[in-house]
TrEMBL record:
Residues 107-324 form the DUF4097 domain. This is DUF4097 family beta strand repeat protein. Residues 3-33 form the YvlB/LiaX N-terminal domain. It comes from the Bacteria.
Length: 361
């Protein structure tokens, strides 16, 4: 029991759960421990109905163990990704790639190590500013030559490509592109954070193995954001479809969307959903809370579920369709704002955390 409490406090420290959620988790664990102690005695009287309930409890415990095992494997994979540079001394190389009056609608960016920041500017040129640390080079000249040889920048067939595949180079890259609507932007980093802002693009995809993904004021049709070890943050953006996925890290979403599908293993999910575009929402995490602020301009058909935690629905005058309050499973199926014609289907689920539904401000 003490070990679980320490883990919960660590989750608070890491920002995975809030202080109030931690209190609820500890209380739920205490209740589960009390229930466990009450069943640990020898009885000469056999109640077959209770025996069947105990069998079901064992099956549930088995499922829970599988979840714990899955989480342990996920964290082990993250720990085994040793991303610290131990290559000895490095040389710093500053370089600018520049293309005048560039014409393109698609972008592919792939950087092994470093950070990426991308935003539009009021010029017709493309400017890529690089501050790189080059490892395993004998001197400054060889380091610069190595960087120029490894980095690839080209624009061909309406397509911009920028690549730094070498793991011996850690580059902080800033990309400035003309302020116009793009068809597709795909960004990939193995080790490092991604920041994108003020873009208009049909399809936007950003993936980091180890690093945060942050987008701000981006409008488009589809967005797919993914990181294995890091948080995801979406600020004041607008998409018809938004998908996010992280193994270890929190997710924060704010904006106007038609459909949101947000998945996490260890981390909370917070979403402030605005506007009348909403029609589908899927939110699922294993360890962490789900906190949703929903629009009041659509009819909501909501299904909420948690194993260890509570369900809080603060919407006024919502109708309970079905509700369960069992020891290891709580669920709520509700209907809200039924006077609206447009339907918004919502599913929110967490294994060890609470679910909050908050009305629009």
């Amino acid at each position: 029991m003490k070990e679980e409490q320490v883990k919960i406090l660590k989750m608070v420290e890491d920002g995975i759960v809030s202080a109030e959620e931690a209190v609820e988790l500890i209380e739920s664990l205490e209740k589960a421990e009390q229930a466990k102690n009450q069943t640990q005695f020898v009885s000469k009287n056999v109640d077959w109905e209770k025996r069947e309930e105990q069998t079901n409890d064992k099956q549930h415990t088995s499922k829970k163990s599988k979840f714990v095992h899955f989480m342990e494997e996920a964290f082990t994979k993250i720990k085994n990704v040793d991303l610290d540079f131990n290559f000895g001394p490095h040389y710093t190389v500053s370089h600018i790639f520049h293309n005048q009056s560039a014409s393109f609608s698609d972008m592919d960016i792939d950087i092994s190590n470093g950070t990426l920041t991308i935003f539009p500017w009021n010029e017709s040129d493309v400017r890529i500013e690089c501050e790189a640390r080059v490892y395993q080079s004998d001197d400054q000249d060889k380091a610069r030559k190595k960087f120029i040889e490894e980095a690839e920048f080209l624009i061909v067939d309406d397509h911009l490509r920028f690549l730094i595949p070498s793991k011996n180079i850690k580059a902080d890259v800033t990309i400035k592109i003309p302020n116009r609507i793009y068809n597709k932007i795909a960004i990939k980093l193995f080790n490092g954070s991604i920041n994108a802002e003020n873009l208009s693009v049909g399809q936007f995809k950003a993936k980091s193995t180890n690093g945060t993904v942050t987008i701000d004021h981006i409008d488009g049709n589809e967005a797919d954001l993914e990181t294995a070890n890091g948080s995801i943050k979406v600020e004041q953006s607008s998409f018809e479809t938004l998908e996010t996925e992280t193994i270890n890290g929190s997710t924060r979403i704010d904006g106007q969307y038609g459909k949101v599908d947000s998945q996490a293993v260890s981390g909370s999910i917070h979403c402030d959903w605005h506007g009348e575009r909403a029609h589908t929402g899927f939110f699922k995490t294993t360890t962490g809370s789900v906190r949703l602020r929903l629009p009041n301009s659509v009819r909501i058909d909501g299904q909420l579920e948690t194993n260890i935690g509570n369900i809080h629905c603060d919407i006024d005058n919502y109708k309970i369709v079905e509700q369960k309050k069992e020891m290891m499973k709580r669920s709520l199926h509700f209907d809200a704002y039924s006077h609206h014609e447009k339907l918004f289907h919502l599913e929110a689920e967490t294994k060890t955390g609470s679910v909050w539904i908050i009305p629009s401000e």
